[in-house]
Amino acid sequence: MAALLTRASVKTRLGLESDDDTYDVAIDAALPLVTEWFEAYCDRGLAQRTVTDEDIFNNASRRVYVWCFPLTTLTTVKVDGESVDGTAYNVAKNQGYFFPGSSRPSVEFAEHMQVTYTGGYAQNAVPEDLAQAFALAVGTQASVAGVSTSSSSSAIKSIGLGSGALSVAFDTAAQQGGITGAFDVSGVPVEVQNSASVLNRYVRMRA
After folding, report:
1. Residues 165-191: pLDDT tens digits?
2. Per-domain residue ranges for the chain?
């Protein structure tokens, strides 16, 4: 799978010299794994990729939210089996949804849509806070010397799975929940715990 950052970008953020290959193998192994963890926590695709025929069922809103965003290019939309050119819709790039204008094909009350699009952050355009959190998480997973494993956010106290949603309770008693994802997130790695204060800014909001 695509990684949120390149190895070179992670090494720069961790203060490693570009020609120091001590941790290259471990970093390469950590890149897709940490990307998967971050995306599971946020219930959205973060790394840029092309998504083909994403299924959306029983849409009851004029807004159609996709899983991977920012939504760069909307290619095609199939509304109850009928294909529509994606350029027929308005796109809210950073919010990750599209919607019809007054004279554009309706998506409200569609039983089944399939959406093909390009979404996610390009590796050179990842927000700085997210990029730094990702690099530190990769460094922790790759056991890079000097990378702290202490949590920079409230420690996770309990994890509960209910009705397909992950609910995470922190020692502060604050709730960070309502998250759903395709990955098994029954255990939250320390790398994600350390990044929670940043990742909470990127959790997918639903209509």
Report:
1. 455 444 433 333 333 344 344 456 777
2. 7-43+123-199, 49-119
